[in-house]
TrEMBL record:
Membrane topology label: Multi-pass membrane protein
Protein name: Probable lipid II flippase MurJ
GO terms of biological process kind: cell wall organization; lipid translocation; peptidoglycan biosynthetic process; regulation of cell shape
Keyword Cytoplasm: no
Gene name tied to this protein: murJ
Role of this protein: Involved in peptidoglycan biosynthesis. Transports lipid-linked peptidoglycan precursors from the inner to the outer leaflet of the cytoplasmic membrane.
């Protein structure tokens, strides 16, 4: 059974196993459906992981050190690769494939891979060197020396993660550009398997402690890479050891990647600022409580913003490359409008059922009633941020498809400044236990205002491009031809006079 048109079709037979399922090309709806299923599986496994983690470590010093240690590796990875590389690589790869053929497209892919390997290795070495100063002076200056030392050690272990993730991102970008979302979707679900394994080791092997989930993160990202390799091998990839920093395709990727990486990096700098402020909160359980609340809020954001956005980007990029701006605007409005409409009820559900959900899932072992109450309070603030975050993820895809990464960077910088200002401002009014609300409320105000600005700018941009639409130009030519053909010989003669 098939619903929708060619781009928005939904064919149930495409999901039948066998017959090269991993090689099938999916529409926007089919790709989003696959990614949503994978994200649901990933989040369910993530809840299992968090239940075990909370039961073992609660919201104590080890948990705070673990959460804080992930900040620098995550930021470095997203500055160089992450979603930034996927958004920059796909439009250029598709354009090269269409204009210059498969051979040049694979040469470009090899060059991007080689350059990324060198950059991520350099980032790993630099990160190992700066970790102590970064943790002590920027990340958690309000924590005790023992917590700082543990955070430094865990950070240095986790810094291997960006190298593996960066190489896996190239594989994901190749598969996504071919509209093959199955294996990238499976890789999302597989990630938590490694983390759960590390936690089980911590539980049953004496003396491992917090190092179990820390090394588990490295196993998790390695699994993410390995599970996508079969799909890559079926693409007839032609790897070559090419090193040409003046390659025009690399220059195009770099033009998109630089502002895109800076835009995503700005968002992660916001997380570092949040952690910095949180280290001074009177309740020592605040950082762990914020992490648990953010994890629950991240499910609807990922389902709506990430899954739909990742599926939508290749289609928007193809339409932009073909000059079909009217279709692009129609598709963007339909998908974004429907997705944003889902975030309001999702936010209400989080606010209404957050407390019993936290109690049911997390209040076991070292996770006590106080931790539950504090997590629920933080979740109320994060629920307010949900619509703006999901809308921002979707709207940025429209700019990336137009090969404009500077606008998202500018709006993200604006959001960071607003977030920073609101942290200082709200701290003047919220004290004691309620002070934890400052962090999510600052995020909500910044994300909501940024989404409104991005939406207005994208619609204005596409409206300007309508005159350049290839279909519109052909229609205008046809109208002029029909108008000229209706003229009588007398009228034609008078025109020449």
């Amino acid at each position: 059974m098939i619903w929708g048109g060619r781009i928005f079709r939904f064919n149930l037979s495409n999901f039948r196993p066998g017959g090269g399922l991993s090689l099938r090309r999916f529409s926007v709806l089919e790709g989003a459906f696959l990614l949503m299923l994978a994200l649901m599986a990933s989040r369910v496994l993530g809840v299992v992981r968090q239940v075990i983690f909370n039961a073992l470590f609660g919201v104590g010093p080890n948990a705070n050190a673990y959460y804080a240690a992930a900040r620098l590796p995550d930021t470095l990875y997203n500055l160089i690769a992450g979603g930034a590389l996927i958004s920059a690589f796909i439009p250029v790869f598709l354009a090269y494939e269409k204009e210059k053929g498969d051979s040049e497209a694979w040469r470009l892919t090899s060059l991007v891979f080689n350059l990324l390997l060198v950059l991520m290795t350099a980032v790993l070495l630099v990160g190992e060197f700066i970790a102590p100063a970064f943790v002590n002076n920027i990340l958690i200056p309000g924590y005790s020396p023992a917590e700082k030392d543990l955070t430094i050690t865990l950070t240095r272990i986790m810094l291997v993660q960006p190298l593996i993730l960066g190489l896996g991102t190239v594989v994901t970008a190749i598969l996504n550009s071919r509209r093959q979302f199955l294996l990238p979707a499976v890789s999302l679900a597989v990630y938590n398997v490694g983390l759960i394994g590390g936690l089980l080791v911590a539980k049953f092997v004496p003396g491992v402690g917090i190092y179990g989930p820390t090394y588990g993160t490295l196993v998790a990202v390695l699994l993410q890479l390995v599970v996508q390799l079969p799909g890559l091998s079926k693409q007839h990839v032609r790897y070559s050891f090419i090193w040409d920093l003046r390659h025009p395709g690399l220059r195009q990727v770099g033009i998109l990647l630089l502002p895109n990486s800076l835009a995503i990096g700005v968002a992660y700098i916001g997380n570092i600022i949040d952690t910095h402020f949180t280290s001074y909160l009177p309740d020592s359980a605040s950082l762990a409580a914020l992490h648990n609340a953010e994890m629950l809020q991240a499910l609807p954001v990922a389902l709506i913003g990430q899954a739909v956005g990742q599926s939508l980007l290749p289609h928007l990029a193809m339409q932009a490359a073909a000059g079909r701006y009217i279709r692009m605007r129609q598709m963007a409005l339909k998908v974004i409008g429907a997705s944003i409409a889902l975030t309001v009820p999702a936010a209400l559900l989080l606010a209404l059922f957050g407390k019993p959900m936290i109690h049911l899932l997390f209040q076991h072992g070292a996770f006590d009633p106080h931790a539950s109450d504090l997590t629920n309070l933080a979740l109320l603030g994060y629920a307010c941020a949900l619509p703006g975050l999901a809308a921002g993820n979707l709207l940025s895809g429209g700019f990336f498809a137009l090969k404009d990464a500077w606008t998202p960077f500018i709006t993200n910088t604006y959001a960071l400044l607003v977030r920073w200002f609101m942290l200082y401002f709200l701290f003047q009014f919220l004290h004691g236990t309620t002070a934890i609300l400052v962090v999510p409320l600052a995020l909500a105000i910044a994300a909501g205002s940024e989404a409104i600005i991005m939406g207005g700018l994208l619609l204005f941009r596409l409206r300007r491009y309508i005159k350049r639409d290839k279909g519109m130009q052909r229609l205008e030519q046809r109208r002029r031809y029909l108008k000229a053909s209706r003229k009588t010989p007398v009228q034609l003669s008078s025109d020449h006079e």
